[in-house]
Amino acid sequence: MHHSTILTGIVHLVGAGPGSADLLTLRALRLLERADVIVHDRLVSEEILALANPAAERIYVGKRRSEHCLPQEQINELLVRLAHSHACVVRLKGGDPFIFGRGGEEAEAVAAAGIEVQIVPGVTAALGCAAQAGIPLTHRGIARSVTFVTGHTKDGQLDVDFPGLARSLMVGHGGSTVAVYMGIATMPALAAGLAAEGLDLSVSAALIERGGTPRQRELRGSLGELAARAQAWTDGGPALLIIGEVTAAHLARAHQFAAVAV
Q1: Within 10 A of 208 (CB to CB), how many other CB atoms are there?
Q2: Cβ 16 vs Cβ 48: under 8 Å
């Protein structure tokens, strides 16, 4: 009697970092080189995809603000299905899979199907943007904590702890830095919500577009100024807002990440 063998592979949730290929981890690079199939979103650069196994099947699942090529549930199902026919499935996500990347949902779905899942961290936008802009997210005497929040809306409303964020940003409360992911469209609402909790909108801020890539550009000023100017300034690239006195620091900066010759 013939028994067919069902191959069950491993799903690797891999952070691609902010876009520059030389900000990939070595582990991410090695997995790309031996991947059988790569499932990627729009925030993964062509420069990074060019490093992958040329024989690997590639599946683009999109993901743009309110315009998904595939709904999240279908992406989860796709990863499970692919693991039954491919030994090395790489789910390649911009930044870090577990910071506003819905990687936790994908890991849960894959594990629930009895398939092994491994996580490879990536340089998240806040780290890539801050490094290239010379902004220390924490700095002795200025900021001793950092908070990551998303500017995406939930049922049309910002899902943000306005009282807590406003309190952390106020002078005399120990100093904090707030990094807001995907916050361009909702920045006026964010600023209004913080102001309603007593935050002075003259607090320093920096808006960084396409951070961690050679095309990074920045707009600096007060939070109030940035909220008023952001929509006209942006050209639609991924953007991160950093709020806090650390953004007034002008440290040594790299205008772009240069590949290190070896």
Answers
A1: 27
A2: yes
52 to 36, 44, 57, 88, 240: CA distances (angstroms):
10, 12, 10, 12, 28
Q: Which of 56, 89, 123 is the last residue of a domain?
A: 123
pLDDT at 262 over 50: no
Q: Write down the pLDDT at residue 250.
A: 58
Write phi, then psi, for 31 (nearest 5 degrees): -70, -40
- Is the full-model pTM beyond 0.85? yes
Average pLDDT over every residue of 174-184: 90
Banded pLDDT at 221 (limits 50, 70, 90): very high
Which of 160, 255, 187 shows the shortest CA–CA distance to 217? 255
Range of the domain at 204: 126-248
Amino acid at 98: F
Q: Around 153, how many Cα atoms within 13 Å sit in the side-chain half-sphere?
A: 12
For residue 258, what are its two tokens? Answer: 């240069």
Q: Which residue has tokens 């989860």?
A: 76
Give me the active site residues, please. Answer: 41, 63
Do 151 and 81 have their domain in common?
no
Residues 6 or more apart from 9 whose CB is under 8 A from it? 36, 82, 83, 84, 85, 86, 87, 88, 89, 115
Q: pLDDT of 185-213, one tens digit each? A: 999 999 999 999 999 999 999 999 999 88
108 and 154 fall within a common domain = no
Q: What SS3 class is residue 10?
A: strand
Distance in angstroms (rounded) separating the CA atoms of residues 168 and 175: 7
